[in-house]
Amino acid sequence: MHFDRRNFLQSLAGLTGALWAGEAAGRPFRQTRLPIACNQYTWHTFYQREGRDWSANLDASLDEFVQSGIPAYEPSINSADDIRKLAPLLKKYRLAMPSIYVNSTLHRTDEVEKTIGTVAAIADAAKPLGLKIIVTNPSPLKWGSPEDKNDGELATQAAGLNQLGAELKKRGITLAYHTHDMEMRNAAREFHHMLLNTDPANVSLCLDVHWIYRGAGNSQVALFDIVKLYGKRITELHLRQSKKGVWTETFGEGDIDYPRLVHELKALGVSPHLVLEQCLEKQSPNTMDAVSAHRRDLENTRKLFSV
Questions:
Q1: Which end of the chain has fewer CB atoms < 10 Å from its terminal CB, N or C?
Q2: Strand 242-243 versus strand 174-177 pairing type
Q3: CA 159, CA 111: separation in Å to the nearest integer?
Q4: Among candidates 251, 299, 245, 243, which has minimal Cα distance to 279?
Q5: What total of structural domains would you count in the chain?
Q6: Domain range spanning residue 193?
Q7: How far apart are alpha carbons 261 and 257 in whole angstroms?
Q8: Residue 231's domain is classified under what CATH number?
Q9: pLDDT tens digit string along 200-212?
Q10: Is residue 109 part of a domain?
């Protein structure tokens, strides 16, 4: 059978569409293993360390990406035009794109409809490429600011998040709520309000494991309490590890008990989409290049999750 790039992408889109058909029909999210992916930002941090720019020549960058063996890519997308520019490169390198990351502004009433329109247009452009999940981290009042949203802004954001999820559900696409550490401030009021005031049929959870851990003061107690509370809503994991609080160069053993996480998710009957996000920070070790590090990440992830 002749299996060219077009056949590859079309068959992958059809397979993932069939596996995730449950939520499009209004039933609870059906968890199914999608191909292991890696987030764009991970590679950005490796390139930045080497004095390179990931976005300067995306063709060359994705050529290195595929050398790692990782079969799927989770890009950060700002507009439908970004999808149209990326599509030929996905085809060229036979990369799947079951998920994308988008920013959203939902805490201001005058921004909600505009945001939903932008994300819906992105979804329409990306669905033919096999997109199944849109991950969004609603924007803070100001990046890096210690200021938090007030109760009215949190209520507006939750309503907007639910509305966005309902709109994507019409398209057979799952919305996954993502957080960094700031949503864990003040008794994690923003994090909990988003999940307690949205419909699970419209809004699932992208559990960024290390940001939850770090945002809770490097607490595995808090991390696994969140898994206990919201585990059934987890449709995607962002995977990162640290040692003594510092992000490691590769995904493996460290501060977070990932074997326990795997066990607890299996007990819940949940098989989230696995997305590597083993980013670097200033104190991270510097012993290997991006391709070598990501090859090891992929190997360790396959062993840990038995995929």
A1: N
A2: unpaired
A3: 12
A4: 251
A5: 1
A6: 31-140+149-305
A7: 7
A8: 3.20.20.150
A9: 999 999 999 999 9
A10: yes
